[in-house]
Amino acid sequence: MLSVATWNINSARLRLPIIEKYLGDHAPDILCLQEIKCQEHQFPADALAKLGYEHQAVCGQKGYHGVATVSRVPIREYARHDWQANGEARHVGVEVVGAEIDGKPMRVDNVYVPAGGDEPDREINPKFGQKLDFLARMTDWAKAIDAPTLIVGDFNIAPMESDVWNHKQLLKVVSHTPIEVETLQGFKDAHGWVDLGREFIRDPERYYSWWSYRSKDWRVNDRGRRLDHMWASPALAAKATRHHLLEDARDWEKPSDHIPLVTEFDL
Prior knowledge:
- The protein is α+β, with helices and mostly antiparallel strands.
- It has a single domain (2-265), classed as Endonuclease/exonuclease/phosphatase (Deoxyribonuclease I, Chain A), CATH 3.60.10.10.
- The protein contains eight helices and 14 strands.
- The strands form three sheets. A six-stranded mixed sheet has the order 3-4-2-1-14-13. A six-stranded mixed sheet has the order 5-6-7-8-12-9. Strands 10-11 form a two-stranded antiparallel sheet.
């Protein structure tokens, strides 16, 4: 059995206490973090190693973005892709040592897709164009995948109507616009990815992973979106036995605006 979690932590140093709480209470084998917001030498590597997560792949930068994969089982970094095409730290890929399907090592790719700004128009908002181009480069990568792969992270897109609190109100809001959904579908089709979240929590069941800090009582208002995802190659998806999320983490002290997701595999 192998468990893999993903969590946009919104600053690994600021939220180290809740990372430690999560690892202590739930102990996934592998944890993929996004938005670590620090350079690699600033990442709290020693603190997480003391909890047993001594295998680490960290791709960071000063103050923004950044991803890190920490593990209790051996991993080896195999790639860092600059899908943003400007040097931003938004991806790290690892192989899980000893976990194989049909003789090929399992890979875990940890990604932080750009948010895309406020206006869903690349002509007036270059950030939106960068987001679509980022996804296009991911799609080209996906076409060539030849190993059982799990891609996880903050995709910053809620593709289904049931992935947002109000489909009609959010159709023109970045993260749920038709062009983003269509572009993400192109990425999905490029490799035949299986959306593990929606394999276990079936549409139209409510499933959110993010709630804005602007909402004073997020549980009462419940204006969530499913921005975080775990997608697997078909052969790997067939090994998935359980998928769940931890909404209570949104109530922890100094929480992230995202919550952890985890999938378990029979490997």
